[in-house]
Amino acid sequence: MHDNLDAAPGRRALLKNALVLAGALAVPGAVAARERLTAGDLRPVRQPPIPSRPTVPAVPQAILASSRVVRPALLRQAMASLQKHGSQVRQRDRMAIVDFAVGSSEPRLHLVDLISGKSTSLLVSHGSGSDPSHSGYVQRFSNAFNSNASSEGAFLTDNYYVGKHGRSQRLIGLDPTNDNALGRAIVVHSAWYANRDMIKTHGMLGRSQGCFAVGENELDRVFANLGPGRMIYAAKV
């Protein structure tokens, strides 16, 4: 079930929880992908690879109520972007915010429920082109083809497919800083180099080729929270 934020109660809830989240403080924060995803590798999937939200088991309350929340400056920027692109974002009850100011050893992919104000935070990789020295931190962004870099800005989640990285979700870049995302095959997928045990052995996650790569056991949670038609906002503030 999706809440409609165009209704008055939804707008009030959105504004209330944005203020609550904006007042919270953030918790601070080697191996590269070996295969490149190209348009020729994509095989469409007619139905999402997971059940629709009404039949997805609820994420435990303790996890949803995680103390890791979005930093106020980044949250304000993400909410302004959601307002700016509102006509293109059909579902505005939940969104993901990626804090690229934080290193890859820290949970920096925040899945935020804009109605309840609750959130959960996961690990996510950045592109090798954004971190050539493999420091664990994003040094730069790029929207260029073959850059292998992460891009900043607002992304619209699109349909699911199966490609070289298994179940994945296409993303549409909504800003000039990321409008090549679809053509570059910048997507959400899972990867072994984004698993938590990489931190134990390497002190950081491996790098993607610009995609939002999450741990292999976290993909269902990300898909269940987002689905098509929602926003991912990524920035380094």
Tell me what the structure shows.
It is a single chain. This protein is of the alpha+beta class and 237 residues long. Helices cover 21% and strands 20% of the residues. The protein has 6 helices and 9 strands. The protein has helices at 8-22, 61-64, 72-84, 181-184, 197-202, 219-225; strands at 43-44, 94-99, 109-113, 119-122, 153-163, 166-173, 187-190, 212-214, 231-235. Strands 1, 2, 3, 4, 5, 6, 7, 8 and 9 form a 9-stranded mixed sheet that branches. A hairpin with a 5-residue loop joins strand 3 (109-113) and strand 4. The protein starts with 7 loop residues before the first helix and ends with a strand.
Strand and helix map with partners:
Layout lengths: L7 H15 L20 E2 L16 H4 L7 H13 L9 E6 L9 E5 L5 E4 L30 E11 L2 E8 L7 H4 L2 E4 L6 H6 L9 E3 L4 H7 L5 E5 L2
Parallel strand pairs: 2-9, 7-8
Antiparallel strand pairs: 1-5, 2-3, 3-4, 5-6, 5-9, 6-7
Helix content: 10-25%
Count of DSSP-assigned helices: 6
Measured distance between first and last alpha carbons:
33 Å
Give the overall silhouette. Answer: globular
In terms of per-residue confidence, which ranges show pLDDT below 50 for 5 or more consecutive residues? 1-9, 19-67
Average of pLDDT: 81
Tell me about the largest β-sheet: 9 strands, mixed
Strand content: 15-25%
- Encode the helix/strand succession as letters: HEHHEEEEEHEHEHE
Helix vs. strand class: alpha+beta
Protein name: Murein L,D-transpeptidase catalytic domain family protein
Organism: Sphingomonas sanguinis
